[in-house]
Prior knowledge:
By secondary structure, this protein is an alpha/beta fold. The protein contains 9 helices and 14 strands.
Amino acid sequence: MDRFHLMTVFVAVAEEESFAAAARRLRLSPPAVTRAVAFLEERLGVRLLTRTTRLVRTTDAGVRYLGDARRILLEADEADDAAAGINATPRGHLAITAPVLFGKIYVIPVITAYQTTFKETTVSALFVDRVVNLMDEGLDVGIRIGVLPDSSLRAIRVGQVRRVVCASPAYLKKYGNPQTPADLAHHQIIAATSVSTGSEWTFTRGTEKVGIKLLPRILVNTNDGAFEAARSGFGLTRLLSYQVASEVATGTLEVVLAEFDEASMPIQVIHREGRHGSAKVRSFVDLAVERLRADTALQ
Length: 299
């Protein structure tokens, strides 16, 4: 059997964790998928998958082979795109990732504009508030907030954000504005664990960093939850500036302690650097960079 075909089948089964689902995805019969995986394992002399009555899982060897297979198939696609010419029409499936609220506010409009222009593409989006490894999860493009440690990725800076403390005007009228970070001890605190780990908020005073330990009245694992509690007038919360930009502009929320904010964090569009950039990735990255750089809330 063709080696690329075997890799493609294996990747589909590993990602779907099901032979039947992989068969539907590839438009093959289930027996054909089963034969391909068995042939590949026999050729390699190692078991790549463990099967139970309900799930299919990759073995340790399968995990390693999955990463290599994804990379090889990606490079093959890039080579095809390069041979077709740099002006080839973007087509095929594009997988992207971004933080949850950032994806909802900024990335969804880019996706819809992209697919309106390029009719032969499909897009899947993974919106999660954690650092995602593009290669491990089979993703093409990501938007990441913060310093990028992985030098194997190409990063294009499109803006910056900072952590801000905010509350509703009604709350501040009732309890007063904190003048220093230490004043937070006398306020009702709403903490979003996805923005600040634990119950300590860090501020700057000149070149010095100051950590303030807090006892949150509400501790929530989503930014949405903290946002809604603050907007309702319950207390002070700390979120990223883009998450509250619209409410701050309309006066629904007010920023306090701005002079003690930490340094801004970069927003970057990232993608895997290949020998040849595929048309679908280039086109999406170009559009995302243009749109995000034009948004004043991110500058």
